[in-house]
Amino acid sequence: MTNLKRSAIATALTLALVSGLAACGSSDDAKPAEAAPSASPPASQSDKEAKGKAASGSGKEPAKPKPSASPSPKGPYKPATPKRPAQNVPVPGPLPEVAKEESKAGQVAFIEHWAKEFNYAVETGKLRPEFWEMTSRSCNYCKEVERALKNMEEQKTWNVGGDITVDNIRPDIEPLEDGIYEVRFSVSETARKRYASGKTKPVEEYPAGAVDQAFVELRRVKGQWRLEGFYQIAD
């Protein structure tokens, strides 16, 4: 297996999502406005916390089943508009069992589910705990997105559009010497506009973008895949 970082310079993905979100903290037009409606219901406690509370019961009542980390939204889904954020966004389902397999099918399913978690964050403005269960904190691209989303939350702004699609995934189950698996694919992003409460025009606007030679670094951790980095291959 060819080490892409040695054969070509690996740079941060240059989709509009990155350049746009990274600039959120410096936009003069995106000053804090009145609080916009919540884009999604608040997440419940983590599985670990829920388990601890269930175990601390008095014993007089049967233990209640622990809640999922992100309960299903109540009410109809309403996509984001220039006037308000998205509402009742459907949460991604649990990580499919096939996505945990050490196989080509497992890599494909993992990357596809990771993209669903990513798109959920773009639409709601929040990365779910499940995203970080799949993703290493060493992923610089992911940390930049998290920082930008926090800036958007502080500024009371939201996205319309900007979801990504991954295609032509080329799995490779032959690891490098350091245990990293490099999986190539193509990724595209729809046009994205960022709006703020009380403003009729977007405070930021970015066209659709695409990268034909993108790749992720995966690693096997505790019997499943974990994303270590998200890159494109430089020309």
TrEMBL record:
The lineage of its organism: Bacteria, Bacillati, Actinomycetota, Actinomycetes, Micrococcales. Residues 33-45, 56-67 have a biased composition (Low complexity). It comes from the Bacteria. This is DUF6318 domain-containing protein. Residues 76-228 form the DUF6318 domain. It comes from Pseudoglutamicibacter albus. Residues 24-100 are annotated as: Disordered. Residues 1-22 form the signal peptide. Keywords: Signal.
